[in-house]
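Archive entry: two folds, one per protein. Generate the first.
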Amino acid sequence: MPEKGVRNRYSQSPFQILMYDDAGMISTGSAFFYEFKGEVYLITNWHNLSGRHFLTKEPLSNRFPTCIDLKLATFIPHESGNRHAFTSVAHRLNLYKEFKPIWFEHPSLGERCDVVAIKLARPTDCNEQFHVPVNKISKLRVPVMPGNTAFVIGFPSSISTGFGLPLWKSGFIASEPYYGITSGGSISRIGGLVDGVELPAFFLDTQTRQGMSGAPVFCSFTGTWGVNDPYEEINIDAPGFWNRADVVFNETRMEFIGCYSGRIGKEEEGAALGICWGVEVIEEICSVQKPGKNPHFNELTDG
């Protein structure tokens, strides 16, 4: 770990994105790379690119992005001419080709899932030590449970440090990750909430801010667990336990667990609950590669 430099490799994974229309910058957000079957995808929120709320489809402002800038760590020629300077540089990406979005959406939920993926060749001038796909930083899994510390690493209120490094916002996993959440549901005498929108996500208890949307989420765990099955009940008194090579003893490790998406309604806002879309959602999108629909198509044809 360097004393003078980036001290945590997870700080090197996300990057800031800037949303634009013809009039200029609209807003900022967060994004990251994810590798699936040897190909790299940019992952961020649907609402970042569409300019609309992913459930209500209401405009977030009176402007809608047509392109984004990716702020990537890059070497650029120094003004002296004989060496290079290191900083973050905006790389332009158009969001539409012949009015069709370049992103992939969830195969069954479509626009009701606030995660999209863009297959993207890594820019050749991007420093190879930075923006490593989040699922390639570490292959070690940890027990992901309610109460565990979760870190959302992104750009709250458009803030960055140094040459464009993200900030870490901490919180806790606030719901059972295996079970989805219900937005806008009502109380029922049987079971959980009913008559709401079922989403394959889980809650985070965290005070995040605008600009964090699309940030990667990592779970931190301290303890002892099995490498091959992190949910195995560890029994140190079991025969041969101390000869096992597949157990991590009293360590702190992190695992990538999903994409942050902000709050989804008044109830979640009041309870300080953000949502995290799990890894399974990202993998479904990258696997099926269902083309995204133009979020403004109906408006254009009806008008």
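Generate the second and append.
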Amino acid sequence: MNTRTGWVQGYNAQLAVTADHLIPALMLTRAPTDMDCLQPMMNAAQSAARTIAHTRADDGGDDEIGLVPADAGYCSMDNLTAPGPNRLIATGKDRRLADEAADDPRTGPPPPDASPLERMRHQMKTPEGLAAYAHRGATVEPVNAHLKDQTGLRRFSRRGLAAATSELNLAAAVVNLLKLHRHTTAALAT
């Protein structure tokens, strides 16, 4: 990857993050864009949800993923039409989406003859769509920041995709374990 200070071996890290900031799935790739990563990440997240639900079968665990919000880097016809959970993919920059929704708000379902991209644009202009998309940043970005700042994962120590992936898996496991520990100790204290 070319930077202002020269070439750096870089990777594109993808995280699936739950509403309670756990990381059930991740992947590391050399792809410079996110577009080809959404479907594999949705599959990995669904697999993790099924595994978690299977282990929680006694208490009626749910293996369904409700909504997958994704930023504009994932917007492609393949990602809009792929099978899988419901998704809300931004069709442009965040600030522009809010301006468009304010200038031309929408309600109800999109027109029946709308293309997948037009359906997504319509959904992003509804109050429900904007509210659901607003949670994306509050869900994913704190986990990214935590990995970088709290666990110190700004660079990988090991070389190669497999080694760097194992390092990312370890860092994600640490984040998950600390989150679970805090949750458990807080529940015991009350």
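Annotation attached to the second fold: The first strand starts at residue 2 and ends at 3. Residues 97 and 132 are 13 Å apart (CA to CA).
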